[in-house]
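A favour, since you know our structure tokens better than I do. It will help me judge whether the discrete encoding reads sensibly. The space below this message is yours for that.
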Amino acid sequence: MNTSTSSPASALPEASGSAHSPDSPVFPAAARTLPRIVVLATGGTIAGAASDPANTAGYEAGVLSIEQLLATIPALGKVARLDAEQLANLDSKDMTLAFWTTLAQRVNALLGDDAIDGVVITHGTDTLEETAYLLHLTVKSSKPVVLTAAMRPATALSADGPLNLLNAVTLAASPAARGQGVLVALNNRIHSARDAVKTSTFAVDAFHSPEAGVLGWVQDARVELVRRVVRPHTLDTEFVIGSAWPHVEIVTSYAGVSRALVEGLVAAGVRGIVVAGTGNGSIHETLQQALVDALTQGIAVVRSSRVGSGHVMHNGAAADDALGFVTADSLNPYKARVLLMLALAAGAAGPVALQRVFDLY
């Protein structure tokens, strides 16, 4: 197991032995009949530390190791047998496509092991919704995959990470989570990876599913799902993780926007552009003309919205078909970028084929 090389925070206990040892005080031998869950740690605020417990903003993300985090939650030993791997210890604002590839491949490898019942991923909140949706489309298993995070560092007063992690493992160990695709467990709520978005810069209740609503809740070892995921995911998608990622970027429409960004992206060889439009994905006329010109060079254009909720509906025989634009349905620009990259990598070409992908997923 890889371990973090960062210095431990004195406010937290040292790990007692290996976090994945079934004979450790945290995970006693009596728990061996429980589901086996692998916790993949990637860093983030949940592993963050600050010198002042009252400081929930001025901290360093990705400091603590997964062993240290697990050692603070002895209740986990009643929920599952845990293995732990430190894949990274980064601030998720610095997420890379290369690490997405590493993460997705590792999750698929683990879930291909009959002895593994599910995977939990600790992640920073900044890009969690993008990573979760990527995995939702590329994991090839019906076993549970649950992402969790924290809005307060581990050293903070009333840190939310330990309970979020306990609930995530509880969810991953539950038969109810099987076949639901990738899930997000935060603040006692269960979200589908497709729907979950970060909506606050500071609140513990930072994640919501604005259009579809939550899938259910987890509290005090009880998991309840009140609806099921209906769009295709995991085993039912056409997407696989490879080594190459098509170059796709996001531009925003706003008052007085120029052509400069689009022209720069075209010159850089971009293969797709997602537009964070105003309202129902509307685009300033100057920016729209630049995007139409980009389309003539074979660049895919997807209309999304910067609003935060709602659908960007396809105009059919009207403007979208006439211009060659694809619409993102209820995906925000960041998730639309993930889907567009995967669709282009899978060989989808042209607005008709791409619109089918966005309508389906």
